[in-house]
Amino acid sequence: MTLLGDTKVAGASASRSGEVIQIRGGRPLRGQVDVRGAKNLATKAMVASLLGETPSTLRDVPDIRDVEVVRSLLEVHGVAVSEGEEPGSLILDPSAAKSANFEEIDAHAGSSRIPILFCGPLLHLLGQAFIPDLGGCRIGDRPIDFHLDALRAFGAIVDKQPSGIRLSAPEGLHGADIELPYPSVGATEQVLLTAVRANGVTELRNAAIEPEIMDLIGVLQKMGAIISYEPNRVIFIEGVQELRGYDHRSLFDRNEAASWASAALATDGDIFVKGARQYEMLTFLNVYRKVGGDFDITDEGIRFRRGEAPLKPVIVETDVHPGFMTDWQQPLIVALTQAHGTSVVHETVYENRFGFIEALNQMGADIVVHPRGLDGPYRRVPRRALEQAAVITGPTPLRGADIVVPDLRGGYSHVIAALTAEGTSRVSGVGIIRRGYEKFFEKLTALGADFDVVG
Ligand code: EPZ
């Protein structure tokens, strides 16, 4: 076994970068995977530590690149980050926080979008912030207009420069009355991280209410924030003068859990996802059952497998919570290539999230993408100009092919497709997947996947 980054992989030579794997497919994935803290909560909770006067402890932090990026950004701003006694925990001490220069920030911002969430905390702490141009998966143009409009509403001066955005708040930040044009997760987090220390009350309407948002509200309340929310997506935040550090265990990563569940469906496997919880996956579980998947829910996690009958086609519309998450559709589509009939997936959150489908069709799938979406009598999610639709006709046997990973969730789907296909596939760009899935190779090995790291 050779140690490769965070993983021992049979047959891998130590010099391999972990970017290219060769998969021999056609075998069901069977076994257990442990899903730890949510990528899309842990990274935000780390940023929130900047707001505390005392150190914070974050538990169940996933060992992924997005966490490393945020850790580096915190450290260039003088936050001391160290491993806690409990495995997978971090201690974040902001007492020496300071400004950082552009070169340092830009060098560490990497391909993440999280830096935009540093604005509010840095403005409270230092009266200024600089955010380099953002990265993140290429699944649309990923604008930040909602973020900047919100920061201006708090009284920040936003100066867009060629290399990024410089912000200042000479008069400090005051409560704001904000209505989001769309329940954006990131913009809601931006408002929460800014409002908690602003002078006065903030009312946020049309807010995102994803479980990761509610967990972040829990983190902020532990710090001393006063936050309430109503069933109609309205959140009230009463600014306070001082916040202290938190001790928090991140909720589980429901996107990773849904990915492994879809892998069990596609490969006719049987996977116990330790740490998965029913409540945060309710909508996913309904669709899983309609497709013909079976699951057993226990206190420790959820066991996912294909049912006895052949997989059935479904019509799915992605939506904001509590709808079907946009991050869940890519892995599910791989399973739908094996369903008996025609399925439709309407992607209503992002304008370019079907990039991974081309490779599936190369492998033998029959998927047609409608770039301007599709109407239909069954539609419940409000039509958006940017939406697209994928029509999947199955079952189609998949055969191995050489494929390049386009983005995090699409890339994971390529791996599921290669594991489902008969024959050998060569998947390049796997590093993107390891950015968002902790111990990815180790988990594939534990589930009996037959693969080698070849590049
Ligand atoms: C978060 O992205 C997640 N990323 C995404 O997961 C997730 O798919 C998305 O929320 C939706 O749930 C992180 O948390 C790091 P949005 P975010 O702001 O915050 C538009 C993954 O794989 N919009 O809710 O960027 C935007 O274009 C990633 O883990 C604006 O127009 O998503 C999109 O159409 C992929 N202007 C919609 O809102 C803005 O200023 C949803 O975006 C902000 C957003």
From TrEMBL:
<feature type="binding site">
    <location>
        <position position="349"/>
    </location>
    <ligand>
        <name>UDP-N-acetyl-alpha-D-glucosamine</name>
    </ligand>
</feature>
<comment type="similarity">
    <text>Belongs to the EPSP synthase family. MurA subfamily.</text>
</comment>
<dbReference type="GO" id="GO:0008360">
    <property type="term" value="P:regulation of cell shape"/>
</dbReference>
<dbReference type="GO" id="GO:0019277">
    <property type="term" value="P:UDP-N-acetylgalactosamine biosynthetic process"/>
</dbReference>
<dbReference type="Pfam" id="PF00275">
    <property type="entry name" value="EPSP_synthase"/>
</dbReference>
<dbReference type="GO" id="GO:0008760">
    <property type="term" value="F:UDP-N-acetylglucosamine 1-carboxyvinyltransferase activity"/>
</dbReference>
<keyword id="KW-0573">Peptidoglycan synthesis</keyword>
<comment type="function">
    <text>Cell wall formation. Adds enolpyruvyl to UDP-N-acetylglucosamine.</text>
</comment>
<dbReference type="InterPro" id="IPR005750">
    <property type="entry name" value="UDP_GlcNAc_COvinyl_MurA"/>
</dbReference>
<dbReference type="GO" id="GO:0005737">
    <property type="term" value="C:cytoplasm"/>
</dbReference>
<keyword id="KW-0961">Cell wall biogenesis/degradation</keyword>
<dbReference type="InterPro" id="IPR050068">
    <property type="entry name" value="MurA_subfamily"/>
</dbReference>
<keyword id="KW-0131">Cell cycle</keyword>
<keyword id="KW-0670">Pyruvate</keyword>
<keyword id="KW-0808">Transferase</keyword>
<dbReference type="InterPro" id="IPR001986">
    <property type="entry name" value="Enolpyruvate_Tfrase_dom"/>
</dbReference>
<dbReference type="InterPro" id="IPR013792">
    <property type="entry name" value="RNA3'P_cycl/enolpyr_Trfase_a/b"/>
</dbReference>
<dbReference type="GO" id="GO:0051301">
    <property type="term" value="P:cell division"/>
</dbReference>
<dbReference type="GO" id="GO:0009252">
    <property type="term" value="P:peptidoglycan biosynthetic process"/>
</dbReference>
<comment type="pathway">
    <text>Cell wall biogenesis; peptidoglycan biosynthesis.</text>
</comment>
<feature type="domain" description="Enolpyruvate transferase">
    <location>
        <begin position="24"/>
        <end position="444"/>
    </location>
</feature>
<feature type="binding site">
    <location>
        <position position="113"/>
    </location>
    <ligand>
        <name>UDP-N-acetyl-alpha-D-glucosamine</name>
    </ligand>
</feature>
<feature type="binding site">
    <location>
        <begin position="39"/>
        <end position="40"/>
    </location>
    <ligand>
        <name>phosphoenolpyruvate</name>
    </ligand>
</feature>
<dbReference type="InterPro" id="IPR036968">
    <property type="entry name" value="Enolpyruvate_Tfrase_sf"/>
</dbReference>
<feature type="active site" description="Proton donor">
    <location>
        <position position="137"/>
    </location>
</feature>
<keyword id="KW-0963">Cytoplasm</keyword>
<keyword id="KW-0132">Cell division</keyword>
<protein>
    <recommendedName>
        <fullName>UDP-N-acetylglucosamine 1-carboxyvinyltransferase</fullName>
        <ecNumber>2.5.1.7</ecNumber>
    </recommendedName>
</protein>
<dbReference type="GO" id="GO:0071555">
    <property type="term" value="P:cell wall organization"/>
</dbReference>
<feature type="modified residue" description="2-(S-cysteinyl)pyruvic acid O-phosphothioketal">
    <location>
        <position position="137"/>
    </location>
</feature>
<feature type="binding site">
    <location>
        <position position="327"/>
    </location>
    <ligand>
        <name>UDP-N-acetyl-alpha-D-glucosamine</name>
    </ligand>
</feature>
<keyword id="KW-0133">Cell shape</keyword>
